Amino acid sequence: MKLIKLSLILSVCMLFLGSITAFAEDLQLEVKKSQVEYSIHTATQFDTSRLKEIESLNKKLFDSIQKDKAQVMYDMSIPQAQQQGTELFEKFYTDYGKVIRENEISLVKNFYVKVKGETGSGSFTIPVKHTGNYQVTFPALYAETVISLYSFKHENNQFHITIVYGKTDGNWKLYAFRLGPYKLLDQNAIDLYKKAQVLEKKGHTVMALLWLSNIDAYLKPSPFATYPDEEKIMEYRKKLTKKIDDTHSFPIEMTSIESKPKIYTIGSVFVQKDLIPVIKYRSTLYEKSEAVLQKEAEAITGKIEDLFPGITVYQKNLLFQVFPPEGEDSEDKKSKAVYTEIK
Fold first, then answer.
1. Which helix (H) or strand (E) holds 216?
2. Percent share of the chain, pLDDT over 90
3. Are the C-beta atoms of 314 and 275 separated by less than 8 Å?
4. Domain boundaries along the sequence of the chain
5. What is the sign, positive or negative, of the torsion defined by CA atoms of 37, 41, 45, 47?
6. CA-wise closest residue to 282 among 305, 303, 257
7. Which of 67, 72, 183, 278 has the CA that lies 20 to 30 A from 258?
8. Whether 172 contacts 232, CB under 8 Å
């Protein structure tokens, strides 16, 4: 039996700079009700001095990450974040600095936003036409705000980095530095949604739902990001879930197999560039040899397409997590992994 370590290749990492970010999220709830008057300038509209100023800020920040100097980010940040102490920044550099250092970072776009009138309430929105896919909505805390979007690829994901500065007392201060997944295997949230729709039309509902299982993260490459179709996508996922629940009653006992394994749920894992379904089931053969479990998993593989159409169509393998029968769980009885080939 081939044993492998199951691990989801989905890394969602973030840095929320202090309690001020929670305050910002509260303001976001009022975004649709209270838009302030503002103007947006992109890089082509910047004067030379402003562009150099923004480039200098970002260079200083990324250089500090390359050199593992968390104190630099601390010094650049808003006072509310600094009140958290340097430990917050040191932890971020320890946890996520490496992935930034090891990958090539490229600029997507810089935005300079000028709020006209009173600040501290309301919000402004950078529309889809500027960002490409999602809009960025931000509380109007400052008369001048800079938002920089960067991108990098890591394993199966493309990440966006959102950097936000606000000008206070004539100086730019770092408000937020956020890493969030933007694309999975070169597909953004809208692409994954469309992929799921195509699969459902083919009658491959389980595979459609598996592709949408992690879409929450890709809908939020930034806490300030919103896809126009976000609500529609989440409703569609609920519809697929209900469709499967109405069609299948879990656990499913496979009575055509002598050991009568019971399938409890189906998940997924990414191996290289393939989404591999993970079948989680309970087996009366749990205590048997590896060869016996392998044979049982292969028997399930041969019949599972009848239960879940499409589940053996798009990849060459299935993964199984085998659990002991009900009532026999204990800390020393962990799941066993079995890997089968689709013939």
1. helix 215-218
2. 59
3. yes
4. 19-184, 189-247, 252-341
5. positive
6. 257
7. 278
8. no
